[in-house]
Amino acid sequence: MAPKKDYYEVLGVGRNASADEIKKAFRKLAFQYHPDHNQGNDSEAKFKEINEAYGVLSDDEKRAAYDRFGHAGVDGSFGQGFGDFGFGAGFGSIFEDFFDAFGGGGGRRSARRGADLHQKITITFEEAALGCSADIRINRSEQCSNCSGSGARPGSQTSRCSDCNGSGKVKRVQQSLFGQFTNITTCQKCYGEGSIITDPCPECKGSGKERKEHTMKLKVPAGIDDGSTLKLSGQGDIGDKGALPGDLFVAIEVKPHDFFAREGTNIIYDLKVNFAQAALGTEVDIPTLYGDEKLKVPPGSQPGRIFTLKGKGIQHLRRNTRGDQLVRLIVQTPEKLTREQRRLFEELEKSFAADGKK
Questions:
Q1: Measured between alpha carbons, how far is 253 from 121 in angstroms, rounded to an integer?
Q2: Is residue 358 helix, strand or coil?
Q3: pLDDT above 70 for 292
Q4: How does strand 248-254 pair with strand 117-123?
Q5: How many CB atoms lie within 10 A of CB 52?
Q6: Secondary structure class of 331 (helix, strand, coil)
Q7: pLDDT tens digit string along 262-274?
Q8: For 201-235, what is each residue's pLDDT tens digit?
Q9: Distance between CA atoms of 38 and 47, rounded to whole angstroms?
Q10: Is 312:267 a contact under the CB 8 Å cutoff?
Q11: What is the predicted pLDDT for the residue at 263?
Q12: CA 288, CA 291: separation in Å to the nearest integer?
């Protein structure tokens, strides 16, 4: 068996070190080599060695015997202080201190963020393209107006929680292979608040919250499309004390237009003309989102031809640009003809046939 190291060397202190210096050195090394914080292969052995050294040097009688006789001076009584690897009440309090310092136990319960809310509105094609304002009504959880969110009846007093003595924390000491450890948990009686409401608010029943109908103005940006969702941060349900509120998500539904169709930021418009207009050419007024526009259809225009009205489309959501309006030519074939129309078409047909024979 390898000889034991000098206890002062193990803790890294001099032989004239004070009790506070020994305690400080032990706390630093114990945290460094604790198996929960150090995954090295020798951490457990090193941890036991540190505990053994501190167990002797922190006890005035054992330290005096060790200083006089070395390891032989304490081996005979070592089992009394460290039987079954228990390290006594002093060791437990040390770990209680530094686990508190390093966040080893919870205080108040984590404050829950407010719930998100979802709403849906329907707007017209023009409102989506040009932007608009819309009133929306939501039912959300807000701070109780009667108790200002305290949960207690106005004028009443809360009492200190008897389980945690107002700290919101409960400490439980547990014995393990490495000694006494303190587990700090949220008090289950006051849920970490530290106080108990003895006379709850009659309006909110102690929750500090109430549901209210709330109307708000929503600004819909120009260029929004069907199926888009707008997020209004902080407009959802109120959260617990100290927590953020939820968000409001508004889904956008756009009504179909009577004669416009959308393709990205472009607008599609079908212009219907008859055979004569397509063959001879014509000038027509084209409706756009920004007023009528004159369009010249040149003679001999074929079905499906596309005419472009620059900048008459939809505003881009993220850029200061507009799409175009695309006018698609539709040449209509009449389903019924008058006698005169039939006569004229027959003459036209003969004319085309005669031209083909030349």
A1: 6
A2: coil
A3: yes
A4: parallel
A5: 20
A6: strand
A7: 999 999 999 999 9
A8: 999 988 889 999 989 999 999 999 999 999 999 99
A9: 10
A10: yes
A11: 94
A12: 5
Tokens of 176: 């393990």
Q: pLDDT higher for 12 or 107? A: 12
Report how far residue 126's alpha carbon sits from residue 254's, in angstroms, rounded to the nearest whole number. 9
Buried b / exposed e across 225-253, counting CB within 10 Å, b at 16+? eeebebebeebbbbbbeeeebbbbbbebe
Phi (first) and psi of residue 251, to 5 degrees: -85, 135
Written as one string, the DSSP assignment of 127-178 is: HHHH-EEEEEEEEEEEE-TTTTTS-B-TT---EE-TTTTTSSEEEEEEEETT
Give the highest mean pLDDT range of 57-61, 146-150, 264-268: 264-268
Strands 159-160 and 325-331, sheet pairing: unpaired
Six token digits for residue 213? 């109908």
For residue 114, which amino acid is it? Answer: G
pLDDT over threshold 60, residue 291: yes
Position 49: which residue type? E
d(CA 356, CA 338): 27
Q: How many CB atoms lie within 10 A of CB 124?
A: 13
CB 332, CB 274: distance < 8 Å:
yes
The angle, 0 to 180 degrees and rounded to 10, between the axes of the packed helices 19-33 and 88-101 is 70
pLDDT of the residue at 85? 36
Average pLDDT over residues 124-137: 94
8 Å CB contact between 68 and 59: no
Rounded CA-CA distance 88/58 in Å is 12
Q: Which two tokens stand for residue 235?
A: 């407009």
Question: Quick one: pLDDT at residue 91?
Answer: 46
